[in-house]
Amino acid sequence: MSNIYESAANSLGLFSSPCLTKVELRVVCKGISDRDALSKPDPCVVLKMQSHGQWLEVDRTEVIRSCINPTFSKVFTVDFYFEEVQRLRFDLYNISSNHNGLKEADFLGGIECTLGQIVSQRKLSKCLLKQGSAVGKASITVTAEELSGNDDYVELSFSARKLDDKDFFSKSDPFLEIFRTNDDATQQLVHRTETVMNNLNPVWKTFKVSLNSLCSGDHDRKLKCTVWDWDSNGKHDFIGEYQATFKEMRGAMDGRQVQWECINPKYKIKKKNYKNSGIVILNQCKIIKMHSFLDYIMGGCQIQFTVAIDFTASNGDPRNSCSLHYIHPYQPNEYLKALVAVGEICQDYDSDKMFPAFGFGARIPPDFKGLS
Predict the structure, then answer these.
(1) For the segment 90-128, what is each residue's pLDDT rounded down to a tens digit?
(2) pLDDT of res. 321
(3) Is residue 298 predicted with pLDDT exceeding 80?
(4) Whose CA is closest to 91, among 51, 43, 150?
(5) Mean residue pLDDT across the chain
(6) Which GO BP terms sit in this record (predicted)?
């Protein structure tokens, strides 16, 4: 039977496990422009991956209004196979506020590369190309980071009160950005909330971010949080900032609140009686445990293995060597190889070691009645 196992392993690749890891990709664009000189573009990047000669969309970023140097908060998570050449394409579109589809959007250009190139360099910058030619001085930079160790997610719910009013005829339109401080002291955008219009006491939507993205699993890593007043021309007004750590955020895990003073450094220097530019409140912090397959197995998860086989004539005559059902006198057919390969793995996690088998489209001897 060992020959059957080896044959099955070769046909299904069960025992030659690939070098697989998950990678997070972040995208930044610089110097993009639009055909309309009177307004700035509303950029969005679409990630595509080549499969069997075709480009298939994997995911896309959010749309950032009126911005020529966008830093997208959307993180692309992809599987990286060391032994494969994975071709990627990052297409940049200008999506107007009237629609969010790509059919009527303006294609601004794109770049092509392999996932291996990004991973090996960790940060890959390329000129934006359109029909083979460079688009001015525009560029796209993609940064890669391996997801390792802690794959848990954290759910955060922020609000604020008494933020500074930056508008003359209405109230501020605040949004919050969270940056992680990297080991090289650079800042990396982790999340950007939605904008709450005309409100000095905003309640932002709850969002979820991986713990790896937020702080690389280091609960004491510095996080820089900034609050802005959104403007339609892309020149957002700075309201204030504060520093935090995930260790501090965890204080909001049991229904409690954690809050920070939002400080504008310029006001703090100029104004004698300056206290703050508002208070930012973390109303909820919830850790979502991401269990691995091994966690389920070690926790007692049972797998039931059930087989269903198609015996219809479309599979060919079992006496014909071209049929998948061919009964070879010396070796198992393809069906048996697959059953042995999968069953050999699953039987260890099946408590009763009983494998139900179903079939349809056959005639069973000796009376050869139809099987449905």
Answers:
(1) 999 998 766 656 777 889 999 999 999 999 888 999 999
(2) 79
(3) no
(4) 43
(5) 86
(6) cellular response to calcium ion
Return the amino acid letter for 175.
F
d(CA 231, CA 215): 30
Helix (H) or strand (E) holding 358: strand 357-360
* Beta carbons within 8 Å of 293's beta carbon, 6+ residues apart: none
What's the order of all strands across the beta sheet hosting 43-51?
54-60, 43-51, 87-94, 106-114, 123-130, 133-147, 20-30, 76-81
CA distance 47 to 53: 16
- Return the pLDDT at 141: 97
Kindly provide the b/e burial profile for residues 103-121, where b requires at least 16 CB atoms within 10 angstroms of the residue's own CB.
Answer: eebeebbbbebebbbbbee
3 state DSSP class of 231: coil
Instruction: Give 184's contacts (C-beta < 8 A, 6+ positions apart).
Output: none
Tracing tokens 């950029």 back to the chain, one arrives at 43
pLDDT in tens, 121-166: 889 999 999 998 999 899 999 999 887 656 789 999 999 999 999 9
What residue has token string 């890593």? 221
Please give the Cα distance from 106 to 317 (Å, whole number).
Answer: 55
As a whole number of Å, the end-to-end CA separation of the chain is: 31
- Classify residue 268 as left (phi > 0), alpha (psi -120 to 50) or beta: alpha
